[in-house]
């Protein structure tokens, strides 16, 4: 766990001090039982232990997602605006940037249409060369 002080602007020219606690995914993974249950949704860490009994979708689904990234399951259900607002009550910190990087870069590769990391290094330069060739061919003399 690491805490970082950060400053941001409140829109009135005033600085606002905020403190973010970062958690490594391995720490989150340890909180995977009904005694203590944490999960990650969109890079944020939530302690939903006290929410287990109250979750309208039941405790079973939360236990299935205990200690892991539940973003996809959370979105698949199509949770309401109210449900998203409720998240704030259980927020305890952010996923450590070193762990997020891996998640974001693999998402970027998927967006770019590269399903496997291994093919990235080969296909990306080839695609760039192809685009450059197309531009040169179309350029008027
Ligand atoms: C802290 C995280 C969560 C909160 C605050 C939350 C909140 C809620 C709320 C308020 C509802 C009622 C329907 C709505 O307003 O959308 C609901 C339903 C439900 N939730 Fe969650 N939820 C959370 C996480 C999850 C996760 C990780 C799953 C995993 C699959 C899940 C599965 C469901 C299901 C299956 C329903 C029932 C949907 C239905 O009956 O139509 N929820 N949740």
UniProtKB/TrEMBL annotation:
Q: List each copy of the Cytochrome b5 heme-binding domain by range.
A: 20-96
**Gene Ontology molecular function terms on file:** heme binding; metal ion binding
Q: What is its main location?
A: membrane
Q: Which organism is it from?
A: Trichechus manatus latirostris
Protein's UniProt keywords contain Hydrolase: no
Q: Which domain of life is it from?
A: Eukaryota
Q: Which residues cross the membrane?
A: none
Keywords attached to this Swiss-Prot or TrEMBL record, sorted alphabetically, are: Electron transport, Heme, Iron, Membrane, Metal-binding, Transmembrane, Transport
Q: Pfam families annotated for this entry?
A: Cyt-b5
Q: Which PANTHER family does the record associate with it?
A: CYTOCHROME B5, CYTOCHROME B5 TYPE B
Q: Which GO terms describe its cellular component?
A: mitochondrial outer membrane
What is the gene name? LOC101350084
- Subcellular location(s) per record: Membrane
The UniProt family comment states: Belongs to the cytochrome b5 family.
The UniProt entry, under Gene3D superfamilies, shows:
Cytochrome b5-like heme/steroid binding domain
Q: What is this protein called?
A: Cytochrome b5 type B isoform X2
Q: What is the lineage of its organism?
A: Eukaryota, Metazoa, Chordata, Craniata, Vertebrata
């Amino acid at each position: 766990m690491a805490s970082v002080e950060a400053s941001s602007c409140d829109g009135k020219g005033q600085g606002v001090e905020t403190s973010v606690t970062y958690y490594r995914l391995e720490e989150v993974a340890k909180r995977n039982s009904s005694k203590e249950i944490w999960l990650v949704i969109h890079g944020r860490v939530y302690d939903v232990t006290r929410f287990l009994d109250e979750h309208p979708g039941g405790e079973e689904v939360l236990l299935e997602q205990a200690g892991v990234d539940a973003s996809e399951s959370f979105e698949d259900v199509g949770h309401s605006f109210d449900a998203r607002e409720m998240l704030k009550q259980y927020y305890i910190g952010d996923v450590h940037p070193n762990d997020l990087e891996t998640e974001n870069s693999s998402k970027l590769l998927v967006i770019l249409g590269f399903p496997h990391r291994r093919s990235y290094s080969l296909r990306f330069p080839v695609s760039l060369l192809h685009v450059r060739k197309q531009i040169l061919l179309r350029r008027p003399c």
